[in-house]
Amino acid sequence: MTSGGEALIKALADENVDIIFGYPGGAALHIYDAIYTQNSVQHILVRHEQAATHAADGFARATGKPGVCLVTSGPGATNAITGIATAYMDSIPLIVISGQVANHLIGTDAFQETDMMGISRPIVKHSFLVQKAEDIPIIVKKAFHIATSGRPGPVVIDVPKNLTDPNEKFEYKYPSDLYLRSFALYDEAESNEVKQAVKLLTEAERPVIYAGGGAINSNAAKEIYEFGKLMGCPVTNTLMGLGVYPASDEQFVGMLGMHGTYEANMVMHEADLIMAIGARFDDRITNNPNKFGLQAKKIHIDSDPSSIDKIIDVDLAMTGNAKKVISQINTELKATNFDNKKFADWMNKAKKWRSEHGLNHNMLNQKSESDIILPQQVIQSAYKATDGKAFITSDVGQHQMFAAQYYHFNEPRKWINSGGLGTMGFGLPAAMGVKFAFPDETVACITGEGSIQMCIQELSTCTQYGLPIKIINLNNRALGMVKQWQDMQYGGRYSSILYEDSLPDFVKLAESFGHVGMKVEKLSELEAAMEECFSLKDKLVFLDVYVDPDEHVYPMLKAGGDMSEMFLSKTEKTFK
Amino acid sequence: MNHIALLLENQPGALSRVIGLFSQRGYNIDSLSVAPTQDETLSRLTMTIGDEGADINQILKQLYKLVDVVMVQNLSEADSLTLELAIIKLKKSKTEVESLINPFSLEKEILDDKDNYTVFKVLGNTEVIEELLSSLKEEKFLEVTRSGTLGMTKGDESLATNDQTTISYK
Ligand SMILES: Cc1ncc(C[n+]2csc(CCOP(=O)(O)OP(=O)(O)O)c2C)c(N)n1
Ligand SMILES: [Mg+2]
Q1: B26 touches chain A (CB under 8 A)
Q2: Mean pLDDT, residues A306-316 taken together
Q3: 3-state secondary structure of A99
Q4: How much distance in Å is there from the Cα of A493 to the middle of ligand 1?
Q5: Which residues of A220-357 form beta strands (DSSP E)?
Q6: Core-most of A142, A332, A441, B93, by most CB within 10 Å?
Q7: Closest chain A CA to residue B41
Q8: What whole-number distance in Å separates Cα of residue A254 and Cα of residue A358?
Q9: Confidence (pTM)
Q10: For residue B8, which residues of chain A lie inside 8 Å, CB to CB?
Q11: From ligand 1's centre to the CA of A422, what distance in Å?
C-alpha cells in the first residue's frame, strides 16, 4: 500500500526518472517526505523555482528525455512560470509537479493558494489537477506520454496536499496501457507526398534545406546529413536547430534569420525551393513574411499540423516525424535517377557569398594594438580550448548571438539556449541540468553580465552538488543587445541599459561560493586564461571577460525588409 | 460566419482551454453553446466565429491540438443545419407582440404575459432572429436571451468519437 505522495515518486521511477529539480514548501511536504524515504529518484535542491524548471529543461534538451521538476503551491508555482513558458516556446518535454492546497480549501484564497491550472494554461501542452489519489499513476503516465510525443511540450500536474497524505494508502499499480481519446500523432508521410517531395526536390534549380529545433527533437540529425549529401545543396539551421547539420560541413551556410550569416540569408532569398524540416517560419527567420521566399516553392515537414500554413503558405505539407519522413525521402531519392551535380553551381554561388561577406572565423589571430577583446574572439577562444566538443548553454543578448555564430556545433543537443521566449537567466541553471546528465562532459555557459545576474543564486547549488561548470561572462558592462537597438534605432539614447559602477566583482563573488573566479581584460591574455579555465576539470570557473562594449552583432536583417536586406557592419549594408 | 461543432472531454478546465485559445490567439467567438451529450464523459459545443481576420483552418487545427478536444467539425463546410432559440420579453400585450413577430419565419410561442409584460420564444435561423431583434431595437423595454447557434450535419456524416487511441508500453 502506498500513499499518494509515495505513488507520485514511484510513478516517476517507473518512468525511469532518476533526477528531479525542485524546492520544497507546505503543500509539497508530503511529497518531500516520500522522496526522503526512497533512493531511486534523486532530488536536487535549487535556489529558486525558475532555476528548477530551467535545469530540468536543460537536462531534457541535452538528453532528449523529459525533465522533471517539483515546486510547492503559490509562490513556488508562480516562480516556475517563466521556465514553463521557456520550455513551451521551444517545444521541450517537461513535467512540472506543483503542490496545491488541500482539495477542500481550493477556491477559498487559502494560504499559498494560486490557480496553477489557470495561470499556466496558455503555456502548457496540457495540465492535470489531481482529484483522487488513486489517479496519480495514470496521470503521471499520461503526462509523460503527452509531454514527449508528437510536438513535445511542458505538462503541469497540480497535486492537492490532502491527496498525498501519508496516512491515506491505496494499492499502487503502474498502468501498462493508457487511453487517450483522439490524440492524433503523425508519424510517416503518405507515399504520394514523398513522391511529390522528391519531384519538387529534383526539379528544383536552387534548393535549400532549412532545419530547426523540431529536427533535433525528433533526433533526425543522421537522416538530415544523409539527405544533405544526397542533395548536395546548401543547408542552413535555425538558432534552435544548430548542430542538427554539422557546422564544419562545406554545404553548411550557417544560421539564418535576424542575425544569420549573409550567405544563409542570401540563399534563402534566392532559393527556388525551401525545404523546411521542424522549423516554423517564425518572425526572427522570415523578416517580413510578405517578402519571404517569393521565388521559392516550399515543402514543410512538421509534427504539428498547426505549424503548417500558419505564417507562410506552403506547396507541400508533410505532417509527420522528421526523422521518419526524411528517411522516406532519402530512400525515394536514392531510387530516382538524379544527379546532384545539377546543384553544384548553386552551391558555388553560396560559397561565393560566404567569401564575400561571411563571418570571419580567424579573429583570434588578428592581434590588436589596443589589446581590447572582441566578444567574437572569446567564443573562438572557447571553441579552440574545448575542441568544439563542449555543451554550450547560453543566455539572451549579444553574447548568445555571438556564441551561435562562432561556436561551430557539429552535433545536435550541444547548443542549449532559449530561442523562442528569449529568457535571460536560462543559461546557468540549464548548464546544471546538462552537467547532471553528462557529468564527464565539458559544459560551459556563455553569458552576459546582465543575464547571469538573473539566476546567479544558482552558484550556491553548484557548490552543494559540486558541478564544475565553466561560466564565460562576456562582460560589456551593458545590456548589450538593448544598447545595440538603441544605437541603431533610437539615436544612441541609452535608456536604462547601464549599471553605473554597480556591477559586482564577479571573481570575489564566485570565490565566496567556493568557486574559482578569473578576470581577463587583455586580448593577449585571453587564450591562456581560457585554457586554464577549461583545464580546471573539477572546479566551477567563472571567467569574467571584459569585452569591447561598442561591438554590435552583424549581420542584422533590416526591420520589415526581405531576407537579402541586411546591415553587415556599422558602415555597410546590402540595401539602399 | 463559421459554425464549428466540437466534442470535448467533460474535465475540469477543459472549457477554459477552448475559450483561452481564442483570446490567446486573438480570435473572436460570436456565440458559444455547451452542454453534456448522451455520453456523460463528453460535452458538445457549437461555436460561431465571424469571418473577420480569422483563418478558420488555423483555428480548427489549434482546437484539435488541445488534448481535451476529441473531435472538431466545420459545419459551414459540410451539409449541415443550424438552429437558435431566443427568449424575449417586451412591455406589450400578448396581441401586440403577436402582430409584431408574425412576419418573421420562425417558430414562435408565447410563454407568459404577467403584468402586461409578454415573454415569448422564437426558434429558427440565427439570421432571422437577428432581423427580428433589430426590428425591436426601438422598444423601450426589451430583454433578450439567446442559446447561441446549435448545429449538426445531415446524413451519415457525424461528429463521432470512433478513434479512441490506446497506447501500450512494453
Ligand atoms: C527576462 C528578460 N528580461 C528582458 C529581456 C530583454 N533583453 C534581451 S537581451 C537583453 C540584454 C542582455 O544583457 P546581457 O545579458 O549583458 O547580454 P549582452 O547583450 O550584453 O551580451 C535584454 C534586457 C529578456 N530577453 N529577458
Ligand atoms: Mg552585457
Answers
A1: no
A2: 95
A3: strand
A4: 17
A5: 235-237, 252-255, 273-277, 297-302, 316-319
A6: A142
A7: A181
A8: 9
A9: 0.97
A10: none
A11: 8
Mean of pLDDT over chain B: 91
Cα R_g (chain A), whole angstroms: 24
Integer Cα distance of A414 and A430 in angstroms = 12
pLDDT tens digits, one per residue of A190-218: 999 999 999 999 999 999 999 999 999 99
Residues of B in contact with A302 (CB under 8 A): none
Residue in the block written with cell 437577428:
B130
CB A204 within 8 Å of CB A273: yes
- Mean pLDDT, all residues of chain A: 97
pLDDT greater at residue B159 or residue A182: B159
Residue of B nearest to A146 (CA): B67
Q: Which three cell numbers stand for residue A420?
A: 523562442
Give the pLDDT confidence of B122-160 residue by residue, as tens digits. Answer: 999 999 999 999 999 999 999 999 999 999 999 988 887
Q: What is the CA radius of gyration of chain B?
A: 19
Give the distance from CA A79 to its chain's centroid: 20
For residue A185, the model assigns a pLDDT of 82
Q: Cell match 426558434: residue?
A: B123
Please answer whether residues B48 and B31 qualify as being in contact, where contact means their C-beta atoms are separated by less than 8 angstroms.
Answer: yes
B138 at the A interface (CB within 8 A)? no
Distance, C-alpha B65 to centroid of its chain: 22
Model confidence at B164: pLDDT above 60:
no
pLDDT in tens, A215-245: 999 999 999 999 999 999 999 999 999 999 9
The SS3 assignment for A381 reads helix
Mean predicted confidence (pLDDT) in A328-352: 97
Decide if A514 touches B, using CB distance below 8 A. no
Q: Which residue bears the cell 505539407?
A: A317
Task: Name the amino acid, one letter, at A88.
Answer: Y
Option in B20, B64, B164 nearest A122 (CB): B20
Ligand 1 site residues, Cβ closer than 6 angstroms: A 395-399, 422-425, 448-451, 474, 476, 478-482
**pLDDT band with cut points at 50, 70 and 90 for residue B165:** low
Residue A182 has pLDDT above 90, yes or no: no
- Could you report the per-residue pLDDT of A491-500, keeping only the tens digit for each? 999 999 999 9
Q: How far apart are CA A260 and CA A570, in angstroms?
A: 16
| Residue B54 confidence (pLDDT) above 90 | no
Do the beta carbons of residue A288 and residue A560 sit within 8 Å? yes
| pLDDT score, position B26 | 85
Percent of chain A with pLDDT over 90: 97
The helix/strand/coil state of A393 is strand
Q: Does the bond joining A555 to the residue before it have cis omega, within 30 degrees of 0?
A: yes
Q: In angstroms, what separates the C-alpha of B74 from chain A's closest C-alpha?
A: 16
Query: DSSP per residue over B34-99, as a string?
Result: EEE-SSTTEEEEEEEE-STT--HHHHHHHHHHSTTEEEEEEGGGSSEEEEEEEEEEESS-HHHHHH
- Name every chain B residue with its beta carbon within 8 A of the beta carbon of A147: none
- Closest residue by Cα to residue A15 from A132, A200, A157, A119: A157
Show the cell assigned to B5. 461543432
State chain A's maximal CA–CA distance in angstroms. Answer: 75
Q: Across-strand partners of B49?
A: B2
Helix (H, G, I), strand (E, B) or coil at A445: strand
Report how far residue B40's alpha carbon sits from residue B35's, in angstroms, rounded to the nearest whole number. Answer: 10
Residue A343 phi/psi, 5-degree rounding, is: -95, 5
C-alpha cell at B73: 467539425
> Does B16 reach chain A within 8 Å, measured CB to CB?
yes
Look up cell 557529468; give the residue.
Answer: A439
In this prediction, residue B170 carries a pLDDT of 41
Class of residue B6 by CB neighbours under 10 A (exposed 0-12, middle 13-18, buried 19+): buried
Is A176–B12 a contact, with Cβ atoms under 8 angstroms apart?
no
